[in-house]
Amino acid sequence: MPEPTEISPELSTPDERSVPAALEAAPLAYENANFIDSPDGRPLRIMAEYTEPMTRFRRQRIQDTVVFFGSARFRALDVANHELELLDNTGSTRPAPENEQPAKGDEIASGEATELKRNRAEAAVEMASYYEDARALARMVTEWAKTLPGRRHRFVVTSGGGPGIMEAANRGAWEAGGKTIGLNIKLPFEQYPNPYITPELNFNFHYFFMRKYWFAYLAKALVVFPGGFGTLDEMFELLTLDQTQKLAKKITIVVYGSSYWKKVINMDLLAEKGAISPKDLELFQFADTPEDAFRILKEGLTKYHLDGAAPEPPGTGIPNEPAPSAEELLGPEIARTR
Q1: How far apart are CA 175 and CA 122, in angstroms?
Q2: pLDDT above 90 coverage of the chain, percent
Q3: For residue range 76-115, what is the model confidence (pLDDT) as tens digits?
Q4: Distance, CA of 137 to CA of 139 (rounded, Å)
Q5: What confidence category does residue 29 fall into, taking pLDDT thresholds of 50, 70 and 90?
Q6: Is the pTM of this model over 0.90?
Q7: Phi/psi of residue 203, each to 5°?
Q8: Rounded CA gap, 71 and 233, in Å?
Q9: Which of 302, 305, 282 is nearest to 294 (CA)?
Q10: Cβ distance 223 to 254 under 8 Å?
Q11: What is the DSSP letter of 184?
């Protein structure tokens, strides 16, 4: 009698196999962190950095903005005494090395300060002045904007959300009692939003290009204070969009601190060599005092964005409550996801 042949697992019937363990429910695609954080999930992350800010801007009744750019590396520790600390990098909370910090008065008096520290001390006084000017200008813009009629907030002061000039801008708007926006960026080193940003308008971006989109999309005016690589990058991004007429609006651009900027960039030479058109020099105006900058901003914003607009009904004001959400507009049975 022949020996029985062993049945291969591949040929066995379902009844002859062991039953596999029960599976847990798979996560929903938009709750699957491994997918969302993967290269395949990148389009969703990009879309989220478009739609989430849009939702919040609508909710907070923001119509348009005035954007402030400027250095993040100088942080005011005691604004009254103009004592500044130089940060290690743009947006960082870590101070620069001690040998790069501005020299203090006793170091200068004793002759112990290095040439670098003495130069930093001179720059610190200058940057303290720019901090106070940005703070004053943002306060002026906000106080004026609050008097404008309408059901949405106009010309809301916006910054990159960090320290230095960004903090000064948000601080001035906050002191005027207005809403103020901070568009922060997630960086490899420690960074933080400054405390003067309206909490509902405190944003954090992963993608620089989405952050730049929101700088440009709502802006009706731009003020560029002295700064470094980031400030130069942001300024020329907006200037290029204006030069190439890619903005569907007229934007007023103020370059603040002519003595600083004319040493950093020779715009006249660019026009002289034909790299830009002479008329491109009309895309911006220099200002050296908050009063002069405010005059330029007010004239431009009024001419291009207020004059000729449909008049608001008498007594029209911005409601205190947020604008209705999709669920409030459509009803829970339509808008809610179960």
Answers
A1: 28
A2: 63
A3: 644 434 456 666 566 566 776 776 666 565 555 555 556 6
A4: 5
A5: very high
A6: no
A7: -115, 155
A8: 12
A9: 302
A10: yes
A11: E
Name the one residue in this structure whose structure tokens are 């320290």: 163
Q: Work out whether the CA dihedral 208, 212, 213, 214 comes out positive or negative.
A: positive
What are 85's two structure tokens?
A: 């600390």
- Residue 254: helix, strand or coil by DSSP? strand
Q: What is the pLDDT of residues 115-157, one digit of tens each?
A: 666 666 666 777 778 999 999 999 999 999 999 999 999 999 9
Cα–Cα distance, 70 to 257 (Å, whole number): 11
The pLDDT value given to residue 111: 56
List Cα–Cα distances, 278 to 36, 196, 269, in angstroms. 48, 40, 10
Question: Which has more confidence, 208 or 1?
Answer: 208
Residue 206's pLDDT is what? 95
Give the residue carrying structure tokens 């306060």. 139
Largest CA distance in the chain: 112
Q: Which H/E stretch holds residue 304?
A: helix 290-305
Q: Which amino acid is at 304?
A: Y
H/E element holding 305? helix 290-305
Give the domains, in start order, of the chain with CATH numbers.
57-79+127-307 (3.40.50.450)
**Stronger pLDDT, 62 or 104, i.e. the higher one:** 62
Spatial CA neighbour of 317 closest among 82, 119, 85, 152: 152
CA Rg value for the chain? 27
* Residue 316 exposed, middle or buried by CB count within 10 Å (0-12, 13-18, 19+): exposed
Any bridge partners for residue 86, and if so which? Answer: 74
Secondary structure element (H or E) that encloses residue 33, with its range? helix 33-36
Query: Could you give the C-alpha distances from 265 to 164, 240, 254, 259, in angstroms and in order?
Result: 21, 15, 15, 10
Q: Which of 177, 179, 241, 181 is nearest to 209 (CA)?
A: 241
Q: Strand, helix or coil at 30? A: helix
pLDDT value at 317 more than 90: no
